Fold this protein.
Amino acid sequence: MKIEICVGSSCTMMSAMNILDYFEDWAENMRERAEEAEVEIEEIEVIPIKCRRNCKGAYDASPVVYINGKTIENANNDKILEEIFKVYDFKGLM
């Protein structure tokens, strides 16, 4: 799974760095839980990316996050986790 977090100006001003920090920690935590439980999960990549102009510089769409290419506008941790769990089963690791 690829979680891409825009760190352009608008998104950064709207807490993208907090989201980036949260999901870097979350991905590490998921890897550790999977290892302890001896369960294989899909690799989780958390990647800061340059602005793709999807928000057009408008704060009402920022921050923007992509999960395997799916765009999430006005992203926050709960909204992102909701989208992740719609698609991925973490085998009871949460």
Notes: The chain has a mean pLDDT of 90. The helical segments are 9-13, 16-37, 77-87. The first helix runs from residue 9 to 13. The chain is about 40% helix and 15% strand.
